[in-house]
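Exam prep: given the inputs below (a chain plus zinc ion), describe the expected output before reading on.
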Amino acid sequence: MLGNFSFCNPTRLYFGENSLENLNTELRKYGQTVQLVYGGGSIKKNGIYDQVMEILRANGKQVVEDGGVMPNPTVEKLCEGCEIARENKVDLILAVGGGSCCDYAKAVSISAWCGEDPWQKYYLDFQDVDADTKIIPVGCVLTMVGTGSEMNGGAVITNHAQKMKIGHVFGDNVFPKFAILNPVFTYTLPEYQMVAGIYDIFNHICEQYFSGEDDSTSDYISEGLMRSVIHSSRAAIQNPRNYEARSNLMWTATWALNTLVAQGKSTDWMVHMIGQAVGAHTDATHGMTLSAISMAYYRYICPYGLAKFVRFAKTVWDVRADGKTDEQIAAEGLARMEAWMKELGLVMNITELGASEKMITEIADSTILLTGGYKVLTKEDVVKILRESL
Ligand code: NZQ
Ligand code: ZN
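Solution:
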């Protein structure tokens, strides 16, 4: 395990078919006014809105509605949410939805009372929350699986005018106080969103796994999580109402990005950085921006982290090593990963997401370059990977 670290995850999880009941217990801990955050209306169609409202009413809460959170929440919507929070002096922000609602709720929670322009402060200047800023507590009722936002400090915001999509991972003071994870709530997800979420989980694990040369327990945990995602994804595609598969996916998503498997790792995150830049230019679904560039990216960096790609092939994809070179084993692992991605029906190129050759330089310009992976990319490398992904 690399370096020194401290691990604390303060989010209380309630998991299972009856987990929404626990909202009663949690609501009692907070004041009167609840800002109810939700997206474009799926929760009204599938009945989750009614179930949550009934519990809020039964607990005598005054509900301030904040619907219309779009996938890839924008800086304009963030400012709107901050006004709602301030005007109503809300005591709790309850996000009912996917990663977009959870991220947005966290962004509002730290921005409403920060007294500055949150985009500039948190996303361009990358400042932390000031010690004296009031942070509004956040709770989540998760309806879409993938981001891990229900148990982490991430809050990704998009600025279309500046063509920037930036994620800031805040400390544990910003994590949701509680999250309710009912796998049944995810049954109504359209298949496109379900598979995008599945790939998001898988890629979160890859981003942490493909770094470092040491013998790390985090990598062994990651391999188990990856095998579970592959297995459950196949079952969920066959039958979206397979509780075992959907519950495993939900639990795996949370553990893939709640800081556990990042411990002792430098971590890569370049698929997300390039994917976010693609997202800023196309507003495409997050998981699909990752799938569209992944194969080009991993084939590009494979020679620099060959030993890990060999291990990945053998341990995660059951590639047999006999009589093969390391390069062949690694390539076979990546080929099996690609076949699985196609089997799920993921988008495998950025053209399908609306990107084109003439946008490539701009997308590369808005890609943040990180240094924790097997190859520190230059802008020219990013251009090559994007071209390969067209
Ligand atoms: O808006 P509604 O009508 O609710 O519909 C949503 C949305 O259209 C729909 N949906 C969600 N639950 C549903 C459902 N439809 C039917 N039945 C249900 N049960 O699904 C669509 C996508 O939802 P969204 O919340 O946007 O998806 P996701 O969970 O993938 O979140 C994406 C956002 O999270 C950020 C992404 O960048 C993106 O902005 N991320 C956050 C991370 C974090 N906090 O750590 C890490 C991730 O890497 C990611 O970057
Ligand atoms: Zn992601």
